[in-house]
Write a structure and sequence with these properties.
Number of domains: 1
Largest sheet: 7 strands, mixed
Bound molecules: adenosine-5'-triphosphate, magnesium ion
Strand order of the largest sheet: 1-7-6-2-5-4-3
Number of strands: 7
CATH architecture: 3-Layer(aba) Sandwich
CATH class: Alpha Beta
Strand content: 25-35%
Order of helices and strands: EHEHEEHHEEEH
Distance between the termini: 16 Å
Shape: globular
Length: 158
């Protein structure tokens, strides 16, 4: 599925739409991969999703902390930025990846390619590219849960 997002507000709205269509997290651990060059809007999208699930206050980019945990209306969400990683399992273990993938919740990962194989299969992958005006997105599901998520997504194009 491909989408054009003309401005930042559209990216935030898509994040909210992904929050609305998110499958029930009780008993499930879902992985959302956000791919794209520097400054394409990955954090903006994650912020829109978290806000729509009732997270108040600052939603910081996990650039330096690598992981930011949130308790939301839908359950626990961990937001990761793996830009600084080399792709070793030990690096993911050091930020507790195995622990929260073993519990119900959603993990949102920016720069998933830096986590490499240790990350596992993403249920839903969103690739973002710069365009002359705004951004172009490609959304792909790789699991049943990812397909359910994408299938329920309702995003009004503008
Ligand atoms: N659809 C869009 N059209 C134009 N600008 C956008 C769009 N979505 C987000 N932006 C802008 O892109 C810039 C970078 O956003 P953001 O920090 O979310 O990127 P990022 O992909 O997380 O970057 P990084 O790789 O450094 O983590 C921000 O100024 C944001 O307002
Ligand atoms: Mg970011």
């Amino acid at each position: 599925m491909e989408l054009n997002l003309p401005d930042e507000a559209a990216t935030v709205r898509l994040g909210a739409a992904l929050a609305d269509s998110l499958p029930d997290l009780r008993g499930a651990s879902l992985l959302l991969a956000l791919q794209g060059d520097l400054g394409t809007g990955k954090t903006t999208l994650a912020r829109g999703l978290l806000r729509a699930l009732g997270v108040e206050g600052a939603i910081r980019s996990p650039t330096f902390t690598l992981v930011e945990p949130y308790e939301t209306r839908a359950g626990t969400i961990h937001h990761l930025d793996l830009y600084r990683l080399q792709g070793a399992q030990a690096e993911l273990d050091a930020i507790g990846y195995r622990d929260y993938r073993g519990m119900p919740g959603l993990v949102i990962v920016e720069w998933p390619e830096r986590g490499a194989a240790a990350l596992g299969v993403a249920d839903l992958s969103i690739t973002i590219e710069h365009q002359a005006l705004g951004r172009r997105l490609c959304i792909e599901a790789a699991t049943d849960a990812g397909q359910a998520w994408q299938g329920a997504l309702r995003y009004e194009r503008i």
